[in-house]
Amino acid sequence: MSAQRIVLRSAAIAAPLALAAATAALWHDDPARPAVSAKIVEAAPAIPRQYLTLVQMTGAAETTAPQGDEARQENARLGFARGAPAAAKPFRALTGGGEDHDRALQCLTQAVYYEAAQEPEAGQRAVAQVVLNRVRHPAFAKTVCGVVYQRFDASVCQFSFVCDGSLVRQPMAALWARAHRVAVDALAGHVERAVGTATHYHADYVFPRWAPHLAKLAQVGAHIFYRWPGGWGMPGAFTGRYAGGEHIPAFDASRFAAMAAPEPAIDYPPVAALPERRAANDVGGRMDPTRGWKLSIPDPSETRGALSDLLAAQQKAAPVTLAAEDHSSQGKQP
Which residues contact 214 (CB under 8 A, 6 or more apart)? Predict the structure, then answer.
């Protein structure tokens, strides 16, 4: 290689290095800039093609689903999946405490309370298990509050209590304390094995159209629990990682003002507007002391009504004589 080419090549290499060094020197003279913390949110995994329709079905509004006794009959006809449910893994992503833990605990307590406050404790633990199962499944959000409040601003929520006005009601202290304890245990790793990897449930007085398409696992209290069919409902499919950054949406009570019961309408005129329909000299049960009227009710001892006449007649009657065969029955109860 000629000397000229070597010099040109060295210059071509040195120029960018010199520019970089000069730029570094300029940055070095600038005041220190604060570090920008950017949270990387993992994109939701693609839903397998065979589950797309089912995911849409489970998130749609139910308009013609059977309810009441008809729903209970349909639920009874639908059989349970064979074998014991595969247990979910303990949820330990928030065992360290902190702000995310506190917010997740609040959201999970709300879900347990408003969805199952009157259920047995096993039923409450099953609801908490469903929430945490969803956190780790690809089809749902990757935070506890994200799962509980998923689609909270839509007409159809994943958990109805966040968009039907239930949050307007003040919780009962004793029931809230129990729901809080259940949520604490769930975030600490408790697993409700009865419902396994369930991601869906409904009350036994409804029969959603998606129920026959999922695997029916168990009924705990008034709730029936399901998992996705096939491999998407087995433990190996729960690959989602907890994302952190728990957020509780602001509750807007004005959204539900129209849902409150209206004041009952008075369909009769006030008393003052009613015309007087009586004779001028008719007291009508009312006293007018300005006319010299005085209340005079006779004492009961001064009256002789039908009852007193009857008693007097009985006292004058001849005593009753029992027949000989009736003496043995005296003093005995019939």
Answer: 54, 58, 200, 226, 227, 228, 229, 233
> Which residues does 119 contact at the CB level (< 8 Å), separation at least 6?
127, 220, 221, 222, 223
Rg (CA), the chain: 39
Q: How far apart are CA 169 and CA 107, in angstroms?
A: 16
- Which are the contacts of 124, defined by CB distance < 8 A and separation ≥ 6? 112, 116, 178, 179, 182
CB contact at 8 A, 142 and 45? no
- Can you read off the two tokens belonging to residue 138? 């690809």
| Cβ atoms of residues 193 and 131 within 8 Å | no
Tens of pLDDT, residue by residue over 99-119, are: 999 999 999 999 999 999 999
Sheet holding 200-203, edge to edge: 200-203, 223-227, 215-220
Residue 145: per-residue pLDDT: 96
Q: How far, in Å, CA of 146 to CA of 124, rounded? A: 19
What is the overall mean pLDDT for the chain?
77
pLDDT in tens, 221-255: 999 999 999 999 999 999 999 999 999 988 777 77
Q: 206 near 68, Cβ under 8 Å?
A: no
CA–CA distance, 252 with 242 (Å, rounded to integer): 28
* Separation of CA 218 from chain center: 20
Q: What is the DSSP string of 10-37?
A: HHHHHHHHHHHHHHHHHHHHSPPPPPP-
CA distances (Å), origin 218, targets 66, 121, 212, 231, 295:
20, 15, 14, 18, 74
The first and second tokens of residue 92, run together, are 């330990």
More confident: 311 or 58: 58
Q: Please work out, in degrees rounded to the nearest 5, the angle formed at the alpha carbon of residue 169 by the alpha carbons of 61 and 72.
A: 45
